[in-house]
């Protein structure tokens, strides 16, 4: 019983180390290929469209609802202590520092990361990635770099957009439902926010974008076993992306807490 | 010339290639025959540098493939084309983009020149005028022929074929055989064809080599292979259900 437990645990540790080693290797090669000419601007633009503008509707809806929900939840407590005017500041800080980057990253991991893994996984099982290599084309340069660059640019932009939409959602609830004046709401929002709040949020979004691109491409490249393998890899890609986003968020939040107290 | 010297490859604990040696002369068409899963495709992937040997060497034009630097490998791959079993056409591109991929990526040819070369390659495989179709709109046989067009579009010196006639109707199969033969006769392309289609093998081969248990157990001209007394080769080429190959498998079970 105990032996089996330790064998299973050992396998899981080895599997994680294999994953981590492979991901590190892919990261190094991707960064190297990103700065090595020629640059595939067309492919980067195409992937930016898929990752960025195509994600706008879902990011808009979710960010707006998050704004509604947070305004109502904070409103519930702040009204009890007679401090409704601080709702705007709290929502702005929560969205810009934390919720905007994390929620956007989770949406993009589920939508774009899963699509990346499924697409590259299908290419892997149908030997299209081998075909690329035999046609003297580096698959990392051709397939991973455009996704890596596109996501690392688009995720901060999407986060900025989600921040604005979330604050608008909160504004609507506060002004229409909670009786806070428009001027008061805007003043409390902008007085609470500093550049460092925006910077730390966008920096985290940049990291999350790279994490999503690398994890999704790594899982896609390592698909084995046909259609079932593609499905399994897509699930793993989303799960690992979520875990790594939350872990990176925790790490950088702690880091920024000490760097910019 | 392709020289394979004592090549071994293991996947997990399964020894797929066991000190395999084979030479293919320049301009020769060599057909590798053997049962499904015996390592024929693995052998091709070593020649084009997709897999690295556990031991042994693969030399193409006297250069060891596994020892090449990135740029040298790119230069070598510009001379070698591979036709994959399922075609391996890029789903996101139409037929023209698939066929002209290498020219677009690695040459400074104009769009018009590339389209001209693409159309020339497509007409060679009997598929002119289908450049705008997507791979999903093609039948299995058409995909194989488009893959062949993609392979010949760069005018390679060596073409590796992974089961080019498997899964196509006999007429398409024969036209693919004719095409391989004519590339050999007209362009003096060195070809290595992996197949278990014996009709195809006899039709196109200058030399046939039988791969069994990770090694080449017999090589010779189509006539020599047909007349062999080797029981393993005899069973395989005649498609007999009883013989040393199946007996070995029964004993293994």
3D structure, described in words:
The complex is a heterodimer of chains A (261) and B (253). Chain A has one domain (54-259). The longest helix of chain A has 39 residues, at 87-125. Chain A is built from 9 helices and no strands. Helices cover 87% and strands 0% of the residues of chain A. By secondary structure, chain A is mostly helical. With 253 residues, chain B is an alpha/beta fold. Chain B has 2 domains: 1-10 and 25-79 and 161-253, 3-Layer(aba) Sandwich (Rossmann fold), CATH 3.40.50; 88-155, no CATH class. In chain B, 40% of the residues lie in helices and 24% in strands. In chain B, α5 crosses α6. The longest helix of chain B is centred in the last third of the chain and has 18 residues, at 170-187. Classes of the chains: A mainly alpha (261), B alpha/beta (253). Chains A and B meet through α5 of A and α2, β6 and α4 of B.
Task: Describe the secondary-structure layout.
The complex is a heterodimer of chains A (261) and B (253).
Chain A: H1 2-35, H2 41-51, H3 56-80, H4 87-125, H5 128-134, H6 139-177, H7 182-192, H8 195-221, H9 226-259
Helix pairs in contact in A: 1-6, 2-6, 3-4, 3-6, 4-6, 4-7, 4-8, 4-9, 6-8, 8-9
Chain B: E1 2-11, E2 14-24, E3 29-33, H1 40-47, E4 55-60, E5 63-64, H2 70-77, E6 80-83, H3 95-99, H4 101-106, H5 111-124, H6 140-153, E7 158-162, H7 170-187, E8 190-195, H8 198-204, E9 207-212, E10 215-220, H9 222-226, H10 231-238, H11 244-252
Parallel strand pairs in B: 3-8, 3-9, 6-7, 7-8
Antiparallel strand pairs in B: 1-2, 1-4, 4-5, 9-10
């Amino acid at each position: 019983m105990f032996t089996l437990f330790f064998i299973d645990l050992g396998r899981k540790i080895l599997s994680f180390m294999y994953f981590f080693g492979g991901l590190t290797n892919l990261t190094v090669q991707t960064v190297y290929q990103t700065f090595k000419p020629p640059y595939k601007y067309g492919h980067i633009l195409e992937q930016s469209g898929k990752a960025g503008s195509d994600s706008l509707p879902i990011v808009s809806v979710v960010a707006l609802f998050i704004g509604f929900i947070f305004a109502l939840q904070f409103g519930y407590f702040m009204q009890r202590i007679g401090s409704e005017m601080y709702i705007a500041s709290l929502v702005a800080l929560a969205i810009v520092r934390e919720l905007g980057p994390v929620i956007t990253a989770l949406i993009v991991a589920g939508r774009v990361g899963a699509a990346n893994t499924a697409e590259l996984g299908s290419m892997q099982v149908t030997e299209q990635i081998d075909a690329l290599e035999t046609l003297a084309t580096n698959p990392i340069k051709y397939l991973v770099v455009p996704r890596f660059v596109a996501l690392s640019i688009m995720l901060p932009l999407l986060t900025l957009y989600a921040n604005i939409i979330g604050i608008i959602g909160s504004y609507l609830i506060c002004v229409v439902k909670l009786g806070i004046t428009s001027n008061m709401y805007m003043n409390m929002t902008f007085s609470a926010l500093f550049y460092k709040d925006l910077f730390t949020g966008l920096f985290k979004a940049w990291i999350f974008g790279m994490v999503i691109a690398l994890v999704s491409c790594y899982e896609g490249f390592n698909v084995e076993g046909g259609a079932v393998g593609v499905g399994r890899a897509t699930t793993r890609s989303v799960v690992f992306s979520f875990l790594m986003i939350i872990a990176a968020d925790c790490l950088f939040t702690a880091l920024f807490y000490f760097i910019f107290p | 010339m392709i020289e394979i010297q004592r090549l071994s490859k293991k996947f997990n604990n399964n020894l797929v290639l066991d000190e395999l040696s084979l030479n293919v002369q320049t301009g020769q068409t060599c057909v590798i025959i053997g049962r499904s899963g015996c390592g024929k495709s693995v052998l091709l992937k070593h020649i084009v540098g997709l897999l690295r040997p556990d031991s042994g060497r693969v030399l193409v034009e006297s250069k060891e493939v596994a020892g090449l630097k990135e740029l040298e490998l790119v230069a070598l791959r510009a001379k070698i084309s591979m036709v994959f079993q399922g075609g391996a056409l890029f789903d996101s591109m139409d037929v023209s983009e698939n066929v002209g991929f290498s020219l677009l990526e690695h040459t400074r040819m104009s769009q018009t020149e590339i389209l001209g070369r693409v159309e020339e390659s497509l007409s060679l495989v009997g598929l002119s005028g289908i450049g705008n179709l997507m791979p999903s709109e093609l039948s299995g046989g058409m995909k194989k022929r488009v893959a062949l067009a993609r392979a010949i579009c760069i005018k390679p010196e060596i073409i590796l074929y992974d089961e080019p006639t498997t899964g196509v109707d006999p007429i398409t199969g024969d036209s693919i055989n004719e095409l391989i033969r004519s590339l050999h006769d007209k362009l003096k392309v060195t070809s290595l064809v992996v197949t278990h289609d014996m009709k195809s093998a006899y039709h196109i081969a200058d030399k046939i080599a039988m791969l069994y248990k990770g090694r080449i157990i017999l090589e010779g001209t189509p006539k020599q292979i047909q007349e062999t007394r080797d029981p393993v080769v005899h069973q395989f080429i005649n498609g007999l259900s009883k013989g040393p190959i199946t007996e070995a498998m029964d004993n293994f079970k």
